[in-house]
Specification:
CATH architecture of the largest domain: 3-Layer(aba) Sandwich
Strand content: 5-15%
Helix content: 40-55%
Number of strands: 18
Shape: globular
Number of domains: 2
Structural class: alpha/beta
CATH topology of the largest domain: Alkaline Phosphatase, subunit A
CATH superfamily of the largest domain: Alkaline Phosphatase, subunit A
Amino acid sequence: MNYKSKLFPLPSIALTVLLLVAKLSMLRIFFFNATSMGGILKDTLSILVILCLLELLLPRKAKAPTYWIFNAIFSFILFAATLYQIHFGSVPTYAVLGEMGQVPQIRASITPLIKPYHFLLFVDLLIAAVIGIIRFSRRNRDFRIHTSGLTFGLTRRINYRVKIMTAIILIVCVSLSTLFIHRGQAIDNEWVQAENVGFLNYQVSTALKNKQVSNAIANGDLQQTITDVEKLQSTYPYNNNQSTTATPAHFASAKGMNVIVVQLESFQNFPINLKVQQQEVTPILNKLAKESYYFPYVYQQIGQGNTSDAEFISNTSIYPTGSEAMSVGFGNRELPSVPRLLKKYNYQSATFHINSVDFWSRNLLYPGLAFDNYYDKPFYTNDHFNDFGASDEELYRVGMDKLTEISAEKKPFYAQFVTTSSHAPFVVPEEFLKMKIPADMQGTQLGNYLSAVNYTDYALGQLIEQLKEKGLWDNTVLVAYGDHFGIQPKETDGAEITAKLGIPYDNQISRFNIPLMIHVPNQKGQVVELTGGQLDIMPTISNLLGISLKKEQYTAFGRDLLNTDNNVFGMRYYLPTGSFFNNDVMFVPGKGFEDGTAISLKTLQPVQDITTYGEDYDYIRSLMKLSDEYVQLLPRRTP
């Protein structure tokens, strides 16, 4: 064995390192649009940790095939991470892999976002497969192919000195990676942290952080956390000189009424009052807005669970943790929720969704929220509207049948409808189309989206008509809100929307802006321009029903939007931790507050002086940490 072979005794491992570092560099470009020498170094160290361990533990004959197997598995993980990032806009963590079973349900949404260059992650595997086929066809054991230092079938004797060298490399790589991870943990911004420490090190950092949180919460006390929440919230000037003992405005104006909450799939606020070639895109919601409390500055707050997280937030007024879908991680808890709250007032509750109830673990979430009944896929006739199955019209048809039965029992009801007809890729079957899309938008994401929300609006009108026919409209509060954005900026940029529709559109603020309307019978319509989030839905409904959350000992992290002057709330997952909205701006941190950016909600222009928002930044970080503690400490349900 010559000196060179002693120094580089493992061509298979050397090539595997080169290939995987190249793939991690590609991932950096996919995620961050750039790579760097520092990033390559950190990725190399993390890969070497894994491969050195394999080198020390595996028998000689198993090493080469194991490296290729690991390469293949790792390539699929990176490809899955890429798909996740382009669809959800977040850096995926190891916890996401447990939810990969949900992907087939949203494949139609993801497929248009995949680009040919994403498959570069598999080029080496394809080449290796071709070489393997050639070798097999020649049936020659002595056949060798050398490329880039790779030698198939090469056998070597790994001596004692090589094992020591491998162990030293392992120790150095672990030490340096640990240093980088430790430095990165001071960064709240998940994007900046992942870019700084590397994809693999970010996974380790996330696991360590989750472990620290779990250990801290294991020794926590729910009542003390509630006290801390109340104390913190009392320090924020939500109200201008309003007495805390006075009866809130609009309190009990809908006392004893039925409540229907319609969660509109992928529904942004910009289609409201929008006309395309003299056609109203949302004529039903436009009319409803004039007759309701309409909140044009409300923003999504969902985490990993997307639609299911919106259901969780609107029913509990608790922040999603961002580390996992709330239905998956906390569906087994006794969640303080609207259905649980209304049981005391003799309400029957039901939720309607045309998908299977185990999608996003709603079979756990709905009992956790204390819904009396849920009606999922088997209850509907599949009219093949999209990949999810039944249309919104069918959803409402079944829902009205069930609600009519409850009403006949002389009981008030709380009903939730989770719509799906405006789900990506927004392709509406021809027989369901209700508006004509201009030629320059036909077949585009924007054109399809407008068709889909137009149909969703039409179907909502059918629900309203049925409520009127059944004599329920004048005794029912109707809440309609969007669960999350629909337009993907990687497919349709804001500049295109502005050019084609003639409206201002920001790729972040306008994308996260969702409608919220609350219709109360015999109540005059009112536009409420206060900034709000999905957390605020539960407290606002409770006030209208004449229920004091404080007296009922319910902890809410949102606000009653009809009795708040200054609002602030956080958002994470689609924005990094530390991001928040207040009455003026959307703020997004960098490594911290000082290098963050703020954009005006009204003008959609950058705000240069951010110093006045420092207290809001500190407040929201503290409040969201307490929310995480609170939900973690909630008691588990008995089976």
